[in-house]
Model the fold of this input.
Amino acid sequence: MDGARPAPGGDQLWREADLGYVLILPSMLLWALHNQAWITVSRLQNTRGKRQIVDRGIEFEQVDREGNRDDQIILSAILLLLGAMYLPGGQHIPLWRTDGAVLLAVLHAGPVEFLYYWFHRALHHHFLYTRYHSHHHASIVTEPITSVIHPFAELLAYQLLFSIPMITCALTGTASIITFEIYLIYIDFMNNMGHCNFDLVPCWLFKWSPLSSISYIRHRFILFTILSSGHTTLFSCHSMTTYTTPWISHRTHCMKTHLRTKKKN
Ligand SMILES: [Zn+2]
Done:
């Protein structure tokens, strides 16, 4: 037909493709692979038994209960797809934007971690604990993937909470693919590390090295060790908050609890 626009060729199609949209599936596969790597390393470490925190085996019921761990990846994929399709500023996002990366980091370290901390403490209140959060703590010996084993409502709440920085970036036009990918990997890495049931960084390293003076890093890593032991003590402090100053006394208590647990083991 005269004047009609020719159908775009393969090259043009790729140039016009929304890379952020296209990369959602590969990044979800990478996520699953990342989880599997943590599970494998954690089970190997636990078999060696050298740096194990809770020195017990995993139960069959736990493996069955945690078998639906891909649910959260599927839910994330759906939410990311919805964002890439309908959220203003979520389409054709660039590979990198420094302002967006800074905005996301500030939002995560500030409001998101603050809300996460108090949300998690609320989940340990009897009312919410018996109805929701006890499902997560039913795994006494944690596996990395225990971090995402929650009832659906709780899972959805976490997803919405962690999407705050990403949605804000999109709405302010500062979203970028690499920032979002790093953010997803960061959250997943911290979650896996927090439940891996072995000391990723040995305690002696903190005790006898200059690292001990860097309280932020020290708190951070010890807290994740506590998280694993927290499933036996039902201790409620496993926030990944960066608020070292306001909660320092709380965390000192965490460390003492952790060290007591270590001694018993
Ligand atoms: Zn908890």
Remarks:
- The radius of gyration is 21 Å.
- The chain has two domains: 20-32+68-195, 198-265.
